[in-house]
């Protein structure tokens, strides 16, 4: 069955409808023109501002580059100035330390062929607080030892002088035959007596020339025999038993090195125990003689007058 081709035929449209469509198309065209005009007006100021923006961009870039260059100069130039350029001349350790405190360069002018140097303890000083205190203690101990040696030498010199200054017969005994004798043979002068100096003097001072023999007032046992017994100086202390009483006699200010007895030794009445001197708290040659009975001091001269014979 053959197809039939009919030409396109538009349907009949009323005239009023055609006019309405024409009006609609005209209205749409007008709106399109109005819209294009509005867009053109709104974009016109942007087109006018475009030259100014183009002129500002290079200026802003120039300012930014200037600021960056200034920052580089501020930071970089001091750092470059601090760089130490190599020098042909050698520098000392002090120079290097002064120029760059963060580095340490040690150089030596010593020849490798020379003999090595032995660094001993004495070649450097103490640097820690403990070493400094230890060094001070050592120095103080050395000074104290030197002072003791000086005093010992002075005492030895005095003793040697005293021993060679006097010629005494050590076999002598005090005159008398009684159990109690006078500590000096005679020729003395009594100085400060018992309880003198406001009651503080517990003995009697018997003034006589240096080197005069001193005798034990009675037989007994030596309690002390010392080169330095406080203010007594060179002194001897002897314990006795006389008439049933405990008696102690003290002999002070003897000459250095003149003692003839030692502690624990038994002596007899009238035996030489030393020589008169001026040691300890003394200003002249004399014998300081004390007597104590039962631990209480008594007047030595009164006791001698009553008991010596």
Cα end-to-end separation? 199 Å
The value of Rg in angstroms is 63 Å
Shape designation: rod-shaped
Multimeric status of the protein: single chain
**Uncertain ranges:** 1-10
Write a brief structural summary:
40% of the residues lie in helices and 17% in strands.
Give a written overview of the molecule.
The chain is of the alpha+beta class. Among the domains are: 128-165; 189-307, Glucose Permease (Domain IIA) (Distorted Sandwich). The chain is 40% helix and 17% strand. The chain is built from five helices and ten strands; from the N terminus they run H-H-H-E-H-E-E-E-E-E-E-E-E-E-H. The protein has helices spanning 15-82, 93-99, 129-165, 196-199, 300-307; strands at residues 189-190, 204-207, 213-215, 220-226, 234-242, 245-254, 266-267, 272-275, 286-293, 296-298. Strand 9 and strand 10 (296-298) form a beta hairpin.
Spell out the blueprint of helices and strands.
Elements: H1 15-82, H2 93-99, H3 129-165, E1 189-190, H4 196-199, E2 204-207, E3 213-215, E4 220-226, E5 234-242, E6 245-254, E7 266-267, E8 272-275, E9 286-293, E10 296-298, H5 300-307
Antiparallel strand pairs: 1-2, 2-9, 3-8, 4-5, 4-7, 5-6, 6-9, 9-10
Notable characteristics:
309 residues; alpha+beta; Glucose Permease (Domain IIA); rod-shaped; disordered N terminus
């Amino acid at each position: 069955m053959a197809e039939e081709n009919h030409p396109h035929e538009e349907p009949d449209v009323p005239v009023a409808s055609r006019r309405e469509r024409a009006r609609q198309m005209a209205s749409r065209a007008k709106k399109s023109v109005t819209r294009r005009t509005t867009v053109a007006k709104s974009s016109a100021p942007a087109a006018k501002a475009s030259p100014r923006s183009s002129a500002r961009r290079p200026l802003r870039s120039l300012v930014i580059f200037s600021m960056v260059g200034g920052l580089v100069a501020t930071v970089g130039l001091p750092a470059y100035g601090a760089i130490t350029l190599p020098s042909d001349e050698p520098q000392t350790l002090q120079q290097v330390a002064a120029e760059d405190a963060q580095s340490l360069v040690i150089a030596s002018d010593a020849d490798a062929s020379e003999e090595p140097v032995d660094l001993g303890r004495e070649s450097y000083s103490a640097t820690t607080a403990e070493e400094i205190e230890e060094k001070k203690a050592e120095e103080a101990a050395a000074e104290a030892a030197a002072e003791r040696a000086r005093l010992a030498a002075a005492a030895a010199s005095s003793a040697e002088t005293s021993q060679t200054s006097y010629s005494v017969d050590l076999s002598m005994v005090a005159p008398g035959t009684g159990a109690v004798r006078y500590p000096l043979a005679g020729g003395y002068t009594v100085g400060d007596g018992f309880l003198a100096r406001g009651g503080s003097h517990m003995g009697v001072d018997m003034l006589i020339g240096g080197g005069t023999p001193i005798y034990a007032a009675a037989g007994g046992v030596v309690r002390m025999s010392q080169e330095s017994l406080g203010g007594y100086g060179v002194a001897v202390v002897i314990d006795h038993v006389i008439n049933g009483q405990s008696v102690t006699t003290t002999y002070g200010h003897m000459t250095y090195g003149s003692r003839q007895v030692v502690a624990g030794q038994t002596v007899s009445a009238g035996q030489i125990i030393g020589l008169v001197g001026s040691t300890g708290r003394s200003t002249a040659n004399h014998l300081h003689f004390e007597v104590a009975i039962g631990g209480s001091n008594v007047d030595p001269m009164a006791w001698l007058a009553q008991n010596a014979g």
